[in-house]
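Ops channel
N.P.: pipeline sanity check, posting one input/output pair.
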């Protein structure tokens, strides 16, 4: 079985290298620049082990990697890169001949893109909670976290594949529960510290910033509850418990609790690297889109989604938001009157 790992991310490199080690027929398509020269050698670092992987096939041109067509494609790029990849894939063969595909993109929206091209029978997603980073020509991971696959006839195969890649034991969850659990987990101290260019912990220390963070989370909970979504645990993250804390705890006490679970904001990476894109639409934007359909207000998520996207795509300077809470509050007040 021929596997294609598509995406020049540390997660993509890790999956390709580990599956190559496991004797799968795998190709890594790294069609955007990597932070090191392309070779077939990678060093995988997971405390306390370090493994050297040699002979991995690495391609930079999609047409070469897609000839012949693989049986499976695992999309390991950010959500904003998926549309271009699917357009390329769609031009290679008739829809019925296209491969099965797994989406590893965050939030909500990417799986729907897969289904629109391939159909539900060939499309599924997984949420991976382990963090992967580049270190020169090495890929590093702390080893904490794991994965959950959406319920699907092919979930057992994907579960075994990701387990062979060293990501933990297979687990499955209903697709809507998995998607909204992923969104809710990733909202915490993400867009706000990214825009304001502050440390994530500052979100919980500054009462004015915390008020916006709290409103953002409450908007998301209102959507989840109205949709009657049953949130599920993700490896290392008790998402239903987090949601109940947001529902029940007084704001000041909630801030003290959530402060213990601060993690690096994922949305910051694209702004720092000036990629010209952002995944904010799949996180805060997913809340906004669902809230609109339910006729619920979501002005904080609306402003955060648009602002992060505007900065990423160059319509406004990031420096306009740096430590400038007044500016952000003004945008939210205006949005609150019109949404």
């Amino acid at each position: 079985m021929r596997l294609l790992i598509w995406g020049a991310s540390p997660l993509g490199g890790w999956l390709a290298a580990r599956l190559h080690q496991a004797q799968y027929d795998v190709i890594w398509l790294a069609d955007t620049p990597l932070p090191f020269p392309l070779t077939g050698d990678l060093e995988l670092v997971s405390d306390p082990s370090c493994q050297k992987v040699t002979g991995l096939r690495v391609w930079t041109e999609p047409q070469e990697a897609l000839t012949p067509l693989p049986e499976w494609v695992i999309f390991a790029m950010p959500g904003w890169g998926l549309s271009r990849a699917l357009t390329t894939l769609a031009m290679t063969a008739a829809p019925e001949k296209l491969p099965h595909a797994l989406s590893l993109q965050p939030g909500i929206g990417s799986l729907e893109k897969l289904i629109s091209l391939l159909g539900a029978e060939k499309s599924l997603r997984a949420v991976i909670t382990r963090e992967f980073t580049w270190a020169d020509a090495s890929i590093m991971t702390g080893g904490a976290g794991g994965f959950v696959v959406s319920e699907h006839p092919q979930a057992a195969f994907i579960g075994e594949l990701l387990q062979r890649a060293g990501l933990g034991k297979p687990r499955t969850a209903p697709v809507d529960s998995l998607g909204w659990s992923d969104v809710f987990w990733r909202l915490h101290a993400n867009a706000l510290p990214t825009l304001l260019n502050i440390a994530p912990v500052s979100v919980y220390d500054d009462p004015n910033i915390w008020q916006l963070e709290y409103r953002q989370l409450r908007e998301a909970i209102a959507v989840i509850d109205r949709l009657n979504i049953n949130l599920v645990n993700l490896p290392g993250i008790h998402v239903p418990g987090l949601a109940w804390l947001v529902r029940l705890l007084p704001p000041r006490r909630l801030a003290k609790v959530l402060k213990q679970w601060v993690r690096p904001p994922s949305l910051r990476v694209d702004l720092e690297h000036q990629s010209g894109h952002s995944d904010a639409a799949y996180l805060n934007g997913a809340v906004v889109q669902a809230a609109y359909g339910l006729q619920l207000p979501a002005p904080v998520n609306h402003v955060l989604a648009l602002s992060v996207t505007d900065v990423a795509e160059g319509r406004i300077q990031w420096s306009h938001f740096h430590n400038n809470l007044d500016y952000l509050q003004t945008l939210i007040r205006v949005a609150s009157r019109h949404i």
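N.P.: looks fine end to end. The CA atoms of residues 1 and 24 lie 7 Å apart.
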